[in-house]
Design a protein that fits this description.
- There is one protein chain.
- With about 170 residues, the protein is mainly alpha-helical.
- Among the domains are: about 40 residues; about 80 residues, Winged helix-like DNA-binding domain superfamily/Winged helix DNA-binding domain (Arc Repressor Mutant, subunit A, Orthogonal Bundle), CATH 1.10.10.
- It contains seven helices and three strands, in the order H-H-H-E-H-H-E-E-H-H.
- A three-stranded antiparallel beta sheet has the order 1-3-2.
- A hairpin with a 2-residue loop joins strand 2 and strand 3.
- The longest helix is centred in the N-terminal third of the chain and has 25 residues.
């Protein structure tokens, strides 16, 4: 999807080697390389995801919000839950939902259970757009087609372990 310059070497391997040479093997050069690789892969995935959902008038962040609302029991959630479940700052959640509302993909309505709160409700058009974008992402293998199904499962398990260790969620 997005075009980028292809380097003739792996800059993260080079950084790992330089890190080790400067600060020694006890300075966690492998951990630095792994963490930097995760950050780089995240950049690559977001760029690809944004490009794939752009024809639907979305960014990946807005797509995630639509999926979240579609997966909710009633197609609607309080704004506080939207930010919490997307794991973003409340201001970011508000901005995402406002953009979706402007596009007619979400409606913002008063929360009948909380006089001061607002509910984000996915519209029929929002569901249709979300479904089309989801198909495009799935057909692209979520840009992880270089990995086998077993490798994908292993990657998920390893990253889940990191998230759990960071307190991202409670263990079941």
């Amino acid at each position: 999807m997005p075009t980028r310059v292809r380097l003739p070497f792996d800059p993260i391997v080079r950084a790992r080697d330089l890190w080790r040479a400067r600060w020694g093997p006890r300075s966690a050069p492998v951990a630095m390389a792994a963490a930097t690789s995760i950050m780089r892969v995240q950049q690559l995935l977001i760029a690809d995801f944004d490009a794939r959902v752009a024809p639907h008038g979305l960014t990946f962040a807005r797509f995630e919000a639509l999926v979240l609302l579609a997966f909710s029991r009633e197609g609607r959630l309080p704004m506080s839950k939207v930010g919490e479940r997307l794991m973003v700052h409340p201001t970011s959640a508000t901005h995402i939902v406002q953009r979706l509302a402007t596009q007619g993909l979400v409606e913002r309505v008063p929360n009948p259970e909380d006089g001061r709160g607002t509910l984000a409700c996915i519209t029929g058009e929002g569901v249709e757009v979300m479904e089309r974008a989801a198909r495009d992402l799935a057909e692209a293998g979520f840009s992880l087609q270089a990995l086998t199904p077993a490798e994908l499962a292993q990657l998920f398990a390893l990253l889940r372990k990191v998230r759990l260790g960071a307190g991202d969620f409670d263990a079941e």
